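Extended synaptotagmin-2
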Amino acid sequence: MGDKEEENKLVEQTEEKISWPYMTIKSFSTSLILKVATVGAIWGWGYMNWSIGWLLPPVILSVWKVENSRSAELKRLTAQAAVMAREKDVITSRLDELPSWVYFPDFDRVEWLNKILYKVWPGMNHLVRDIVKEKIQPAIVQSLSEYKMTGFQFGRLVLGRIPPKVYGIKVYETNTSRSEIILDCDILYAGDCDISFSLGNIKGGIRDFQLRGMARVVLKPMLNVVPLVGGFQLFFLNNPSIDFNLVGIADVLDFPGFNQALRKVIKEQVSAIAVLPNKIIVPLSEDVPAEVLKMPEPEGVLRIHVVQAKHLMKKDIGMLGKGKSDPYAVINIGAQEFRTKTIDNTVDPKWDYWCEFIVEQSSGVNNKVITHLFDKDKTGQDDQLGRASIEVSKVKKRGTIDNWFTLEFAKHGMVHLRLTWLSLSKNVADLQAALLETQQLRVTSMSTAILTLFVDSAKNLPCLRGSKQPDVYLEASVGNKTERTATMLRSCDPIWEQGFTFLVGNPETSSLNIRILDDKTGSVVGTLTYSISMLMTKLNLEDMQHPYDLQNADPESKVIMSMSLHLLKYETPEINIEEEEDEEDFSQLQKKIERQESNISFSQGSSVPSTPLKKQPSKESIHSVANSTVSSSAAVPPAGEVEKNIESEMIILSESVNNSSAHPQLIQRHFSITSSAGDWKLGRIQLTLRYSVPRQKLVVVVHKVANLPLPLNDPSNIPDPYVKLYLLPDRHKETKRKTAVLKDNCNPIYDEQFEYIVSQGDLNERILEISVCTQKAWLSSSNNIMGQVRINLSEIDVTQAFTNWYDLMPEVKKE
């Protein structure tokens, strides 16, 4: 064995010595040709006396491409390092791609599975090649034709040596059927694949393909004989993040326009194959009927009302700088997508848009409703204004959520969403309640039922002229929605085995329309119109594996289908009050603060919430201060004075937030109602801080500012205040957040929520800087900061949500 290893090393060293001169000559020749071409181009430009203006656009694009490729290359190399490294090394190195079991304790480590994938990965190449050739390539050809790109074809397809890595697995034990097993897999693929393709006369390739997402595997039904499971379903709950690097002549596609078009097409095809409701289904037993595995099983409907947004970022450039935006919203659950209309020239759009999603899987922290906000750009790519996300399971649990959501990945902005969960019923009596509800909403596009359709096969279809068998596919439509099966080549007895779901406005008046067409000629082979009201007379509102006679076809032509009807029903959920959420939503937080403020009185002066400071005085000393304050008064003063006295006494001092003895100490007060301007007479600010460990998210809520001072030299100059936040030491646009500007107000109320994605390890090294500024200062002074608070996050426990008043201090000069 040792002799063989030494022989292999010797061969490798010999090959390196032989190839080194060749590579050196090749590199020298390439460099020489490029430099000669550059000098020749510049000389020719001057010789032809062309304007320098024609030279600037390609130079700018080249510089942009080089800089963009550097950051992309770094991300790809980091991802590949994370896949190849051990999980221990990934965690200690603090790479971005941390395993899911680090964040979520219910995910299990599966290093044993990664070792198995490493062994079987070389044999997966043939399977993946067939999937790409048969399914992905035709879909890409069709999608690229919309961009006037023709002739796309894959050539070489090698997966490389780096297999996917499973960062954790969760097996669901509750809320699942006894005949199925559901598990989630956190998958990262950052492989060194070698894929070549041609697009007309352009030949290129794809390298360093990356994919990260939460995949779900459903094993069903359970059997009493080998293989014990009838089959499995594989799909992603939401669109996975996809990235890749183009090489060869196709590298020109990395420029804007072509870049977005090609990447969008590839993401769409991945979504159309393996993102819910689309699934990869593999039967494992011939004894299991196809409809058991392939017929959709909806769990409910999520009705969403996109009401409005406020305080969005300004992306358009006006005559005097930043103008406004032309916002629209895109709402996603898995591969399902809806888009609102675009409202021009505003940062406070009102859409009043309704949409409905069919939900097949509600469980899982990664199964979310994601609302993206964009600024419509008529000349280029649309700018992102942020996004809001909420778990589907949380909506199902609460029944209805009506809330303002803070936009992620944005300096500021909120969106107002109303989300309602509708369960499924087989009781015909529930139809009238559903119809009444849609009438009260006064929205004609809302639904009252779901039709589940499974197209099994067709028999005895008529042949074309000359006894040629047709290339047939089936189209099914209900209302405005149309679905189609795959095309079966040269078959009069096609077998499709595909399932679809349709939202039905009113099952008493709606119908299912079926057309079977020939793909080559476009001619109609047979049709069928089925009144959905007939299903309401069937047992359990379903008709399984029934042969239906086709119209406009031979008498013996039939299509075999299964149909099931589910009525929509709103049920008030039974919420356990004692059940604690790991994250409070904004509306609950507001109600909690209002209750705290209403409960503050003289009789409750001694019951003070515990401070979030890690170093804090004992509760006994706090109570003694309160009791001594009350007992020392010979005559009981008015309630307002007592409240003020207690407030002034119950002060807890923390250490200096910047570890500097020259800077005043940070003061926190535990009373929500205040009439004081603070020790520095600059006013006070009320904040809520909380940190979600599973989601690695710091949430800051700016409630209100009280008693801002007026300028001594001009008391009539009332400020226009706003609050600006930074997560230091990163003072740049990525960590900057900003509230709205309230005109002429010394006691502004904002109630705006901001979020930062930061790991728990980095949290202790951060300082939250909150500055109260005024927009009027630019008329009279270069400094618009009225007061400031700095909170050292290492000194407080933000895993327990708390709300406090903070005294505004003079600005800390930036280093």
